[in-house]
Design goal:
282 residues; alpha+beta; Helix Hairpins; Immunoglobulin-like; 3 domains; five-stranded mixed beta sheet; 5 helices; elongated; binds copper (II) ion
């Protein structure tokens, strides 16, 4: 009875999520969402395709095992089959159940290995973004933009302005702005403990490790705001260091650079820079 109710709830939720799919907003999760956020980069698209392939493979295995179990339970229980057979080996069967799983694993690796290299780096990145994880906020640097850099904190819940489209636990004070249709190298490191820079819609998730510079890349397909969260348990405010990426056209990005360079000009007395210098001195 209980199982029936759980199954009904599960399928109702699945149907609900399919029905709600067209309304899936860019760049963030919605309540009861089951599937992935819409892909906004070639990396995310490939990851989703791979995920789907794995889902079909695991689904087929689950169904096959279930049928096999049911068959054994019905065909070979002690009532139907009181005299069990005594043989212990079946060479063809043993070959099959060794070779078929190997083929499945080979298929998976043939698909996944090239993708690992694809996600690794852009061949000729047009710009670089450096991301540093701190307890508990993010630092962003644009090394090829005169060292433009700033810190990014979550907007506290009582300051969220829904009329500006701000989202609880996701919006930040200083948004990372990036141009669309540009190959961007992303360097990721940590300043204190291990964090993880993750933006699902862009297909990025990479650890930010102190003393190590991890690298990945992104090409954002369409303008929009994409949210992410630190994805490595990093201390008490792990849940309160979100990532907000705003993707804009190349022209808008150039305009933003001009104002951002003024806004975040290095000022020894500014709070942000004091914090950063203090961190760097540690
Ligand atoms: Cu963190």
């Amino acid at each position: 009875m209980m199982t029936g109710r759980i199954l009904t709830a599960f399928f109702a939720a699945a149907l609900f999520s399919l029905a709600a799919d067209p309304a899936l907003a860019d760049g963030f999760a919605v309540p009861w969402q089951i599937n992935m956020q819409d892909a906004a980069s070639p990396s995310a698209e490939r990851l989703h395709e791979f995920h789907e392939m794995l889902l079909w493979i695991t689904g087929a295995i689950v169904v096959f095992i279930m049928v096999l179990l049911l068959y054994v339970m019905l065909r070979f229980n002690s009532k139907v089959n009181p005299e069990p057979a005594k043989f212990t080996h079946n060479v063809p069967l043993e070959v099959i159940w060794t070779v078929v799983p190997i083929l499945v694993l080979v298929l998976i690796s043939v698909k996944s290995m090239p993708m690992l290299y694809y996600l690794d780096r852009a061949e000729e990145p047009e710009m670089t973004l450096k991301v540093t994880g701190y307890q508990w906020y993010w630092g962003y640097e644009y090394p090829d933009q005169d060292g433009l850099s700033f810190l990014s904190y979550m907007v506290p819940e009582d300051e969220i302005d829904a009329s500006k489209g701000q989202k609880r636990l996701l919006s930040v004070d200083n948004v990372v702005v990036l141009p669309v249709d540009t190959d961007i190298a992303i360097q990721i490191t940590g300043a204190d403990v291990i964090h993880s820079f993750a933006v699902p819609a862009l297909g990025i998730k990479l650890d930010a490790v102190p003393g190590r510079l991890n690298e990945t890349w992104v090409r954002i397909d369409k303008p929009g705001t994409y949210y992410g969260q630190c994805s490595e348990l990093c201390g008490k405010d792990h849940a309160y260091m979100p990532i907000e990426v705003k993707a804009v056209s190349k022209e808008e990005f150039a305009n933003w650079l001009v104002t951002a360079k003024e806004q975040f000009a290095f000022d020894i007395n500014a709070d942000d820079n004091t914090v950063r210098l203090a961190m760097a001195a540690q």
